[in-house]
Amino acid sequence: MTQVPVRNRLPIGANRDLVFALERILLDLAQRIDEAGYRNIPKFVSNSTPTLENLGRVQEISAGITLPANVFSPIGVEGHVFNVFNNTGGALTLTQGSGLTLRLGGTATTGSRTIAAYGMVWCWYLSTTVCIVGGHVT
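^ thats the sequence. predicted structure below, dont judge the formating
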């Protein structure tokens, strides 16, 4: 069965520009999901603050980064994960951003964390203001 695009099923006078924009967003998200796949996790190199584009990917860093509050709030936040890989021979800092509680998984410890040399860390957002981290981090 051939799928008819939503824009072709709209009543006359409907806001087609909005529908076009939403279709582009959904197609982009579908492409990102396909990129991540089930067999690999794409990486990108950046020492900047994580953004929506980081979801499902590994951010390779060579300097410390800050985890912000409200970074994923435009799409809802519960359960969003991204990963960080320290590609240096020394420890780097994962800084707790303003308005964020950065909690070390399995503990009551909060605050900025240290990523071990060549360490991999996952960051899971419980809410817009709480992020749980684990992996090669203290």
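The domain at 42-135 is CATH 2.60.120 (Jelly Rolls).
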